[in-house]
Amino acid sequence: xxxxxxxxxxxxxxxxxxxxxxxxxxxxxxxxxxxxxxxxxxxxxxxxxxxxxxxxxxxxxxxxxxxxxxxxxxxxxxxxxxxxxxxxxxxxxxxxxxxxxxxxxxxxxxxxxxxxxxxxxxxxxxxxxxxxxxxxxxxxxxxxxxxxxxxxxxxxxxxxxxxxxxxxxxxxxxxxxxxxxxxxxxxxxxxxxxxxxxxxxxxxxxxxxxxxxxxxxxxxxxxxxxxxxxxxxxxxxxxxxxxxxxxxxxxxxxxxxxxxxxxxxxxxxxxxxxxxxxxxxxxxxxxxxxxxxxxxxxxxxxxxxxxxxxxxxxxxxxxxxxxxxxxxxxxxxxxxxxxxxxxxxxxxxxxxxxxxxxxxxxxxxxxxxxxxxxxxxxxxxxxxxxxxxxxxxxxxxxxxxxxxxxxxx
Length: 409
Fold this sequence. Notes:
The structure is a single chain. The chain has two domains: 2-106 and 137-161, no CATH class; 166-408, Metallo-dependent phosphatases (Purple Acid Phosphatase, chain A, domain 2). Helix content is 44%, strand content 16%. The chain has eleven helices and twelve strands. The chain has helices at residues 2-24, 31-55, 59-63, 69-112, 137-163, 202-214, 234-242, 263-272, 303-315, 333-336, 362-366; strands spanning 168-176, 186-191, 219-222, 250-252, 276-277, 281-287, 290-296, 322-326, 343-346, 372-376, 379-383, 400-408. Strands 1-12-2-3-4-5 form a six-stranded mixed beta sheet, with helices on one face. Strand 4 (250-252), helix 8 (263-272) and strand 5 (276-277) form a beta-alpha-beta unit. Helix 1 (2-24) packs antiparallel against helix 2, helix 4 (69-112) runs antiparallel to helix 5 and helix 6 (202-214) packs parallel to helix 7. The longest helix is centred in the N-terminal third of the chain and has 44 residues, at 69-112. The two termini are 50 Å apart.
């Protein structure tokens, strides 16, 4: 149902865009060719969301039919360039309407300030005939409005494809007072948001597993969004997790993308593969004799459901163990910190995805915490940028795998 609403919204926006630009094309030389190009572009970027609607999250099948540039362009057009272009065009049309409505008032004000003796004769302005050569300003603006956003979309899509499969390995060290000195340093490979599907390939998935193992962490924690949307991609995601190894094991939680098509189907598939999926459940570890407890939180569709899950797993904690909360959404920390949980690990945000500066961009617009380390007295949160992509373009939010090493303070 949600996917259908999104596709219908995209179709409505594309139709509105086509209608607005169609009026600008009336006096452009070769207007039929311009209209045909505009219609062809809009049809191309609608192919992907319509296909998703028809096949119900069939991104994997589509991936083998069309080159990645098509879905990348569809994502970037509908979620980035078209909203920006629509705002610019709407602002221009609104400003033009204001100017036109204000012209008679300005003329009356000017006339009221002039006396009959000093009023100059009214001059008639003749419109010069159109130049037989060259392009008028209106024609140039129309051409720019038609060609600019699609060209920007395709350029950004092509640039985004060079980013796919590339990620950094980020070391982090955290001193925690409640970490027992006898346990020594304890390392966690924090992997999140692979999004197996349309924007992954076999090489990228193999690279993620290999880089994770090369960290030689004590435990691997995968923080959700193993697949992008379709259960057809689950087997490839499971194979990637199976290739990961650590002395204390590999543990998973679910993310929102994992549950798009069939939540129970995802959970059953992961558990049938023998992977340790924690849904409001805990796992006990022993680190040099020191008990450590991983608390895995289910994905909650609402903030209230998320907080309830945090409270549920916190109530089951071992009072002698060091608890580590695994929550896909970083806002879980707002419930975890008051409960005295010293460490929360999260993903979901992709580092803000598109960040103009460190504090301006998609991160602070959507989340209270979006990348790196956040601390309060007695509690810390680490948010991973994630290693994969559902939206192909990243700006100042590099994909990453984190190696977190915990030390006694």
